[in-house]
Amino acid sequence: VQLQAFGGGLVQAGGSLRLSCAASGRTFSSYHMGWFRQAPGKEREFVAQISRSGGSTYYADSVKDRFTISRDHAKNTVYLQMNSLKPEDTAVYYCAAGLGWPSTVYDFWGQGTLVTVSS
Questions:
Q1: pLDDT the model gives residue 25
Q2: Do residues 52 and 30 lie in contact, with contact meaning Cβ atoms separated by under 8 Å?
Q3: Cα torsion for 84, 90, 92, 93, to the nearest 10°?
C-alpha cells in the first residue's frame, strides 16, 4: 500500500489542523493505520492509531483529548484532527499502515508532512 500524507502547515498555539493520509494500492481496509511524529533532534514517536474497522483507537498520553484519529473507507483516507495545538507538537508527522492489534507492526510509511506550532 502506498501512503501520502498532507495537510501540515504553520499554526499558532491553541489552533487546529487536520492531517490527511491517502492510501492506494492494496486494500485500505485490511490495515490498521497509525500516525507518528518526529520533532527536530528527537526520535520518532507514536501519536495515535485506529483499527481496520475504525472501531478502536489508541492515543499517546501527550495528545489524548486533543487529537482525534478517524478513517474513511470510501475515500481510503485516514485523518488526524489536531486541536489545542502546542509548540511541542511541532514535528514531521507520518502516517503508517500495518497489521496486528493493538501491537501493530507498521510495514508501510508515508513521506511525512511538517506541522509547525508557533507560540
A1: 74
A2: yes
A3: -20
Distance CA 65, CA 68 (A): 8
| The pLDDT value given to residue 27 | 84
Look-up of cell digits 502506498: 2
What the block records as the C-alpha cell of 106 is 507498521
Peptide bond into 87 cis (omega under 30): no
Over residues 72-97, the mean pLDDT reads: 97
Q: How much is the pLDDT for 10?
A: 98
| Strand (E) or helix (H) holding 106 | strand 105-109
Strand partners, 46: 36
Cell 507538537 sits on residue: 89
The per-residue pLDDT for 41 is 94
Q: With H, G, I as helix, E, B as strand and everything else as coil, classify residue 89.
A: helix
SS3 category, 87: helix
Q: CA–CA separation, 98 vs 35, rounded Å?
A: 11
β-sheet with 2-6: strand ranges across: 2-6, 17-24, 77-82, 67-72
